[in-house]
What we know:
Helices cover 36% and strands 15% of the residues. The chain is of the alpha/beta class. α6 (154-169) packs antiparallel against α7 and α8 (225-232) crosses α11 (312-327). The longest helix is centred in the middle third of the chain and has 25 residues, at 172-196. Keywords: Signal, Transport.
Amino acid sequence: MRIALKTFAVPAALAAVLAATACGTTEDDGADGGSDTGAGPVSVTDFLGRTVELDAPAENVVALEWAEVEIVASLGLMPVGVADMEGYTTWAGAAVPLDDTVTDVGTRQEPSIDAIAGLGADLVVMETDDEDLIASIEEFVPVLVTEGSNETDNIARMRRDVDMIAELTGKTDEAETLWADFEAKIADTKAAIEAAGTGTVPYLYADGWAEGDAVSVRPFAASSLVGSLGTAVGLENAWTGETDGAWGLGGTDIEGMAQYTDTDLKFIWNNADGGNIFTDGVAGNAIWENLTFVKDGTIYELPHGVWTFGGPKSSEAILDYFAEVYAS
């Protein structure tokens, strides 16, 4: 959804604080080899086509989705506020942990406007097309909307999201380093799999959860972030069914998994509900136990806390696991 262009300025009180800070630290800016956070106005066009302009790079950032939390922290700027901190720590925090300076600002679906306003933030980063929510937050602080997922090319999309955040936080040098590390990890992982000679075996990545007596299975297609990473290192994704059109996620159940009865593949999973759905939840199921990859034991659980919808550092952790599954 596109909305009208709008230019944002840091509120006067915050601008004064930032200006005073910049004046007091100009001689030290960049001393650690990072970007110049005391630079002048910064501006980007966000995912919704809006111009977001700040009088100076943001230093106090609130992030309302976990990928953006990770990206901000990966750039060397610990967010002042995060939506659902406990969830981030459980599901996404393995690659980039948060420290005890961060404040929880409510849920990702319904963040607390009062909590955000009370933090004196100079930028909120989020994924949404909810114009009412954006407008409510913008009464207090500028908002940058990132894309979050793109089934056409999730790696290129991730780079765009990183670059937007880096530009508005004065962390462009750090972004270049972050991306160079990520590309190096792709190259190393691809080389390791090629050396092992195992890359011809396809993989199926899925999470799942129980719905009463049934087990729902959510495969990650080649168009998902996980799938894009698999393709980047030369692997074939076994899921060829329909996806949701946004995140690259399919849908099936244990009966639907019968299509893989005689398929030689590596099944990689994590649990959407935190349980052991692909061990305890399917125990004794004849369809499941007759699958070739189950009988062969080529089933692998992604380590806990690795976010499959994350940024470059979570993606590196996923690549490490591809290497472990295929090359160790």
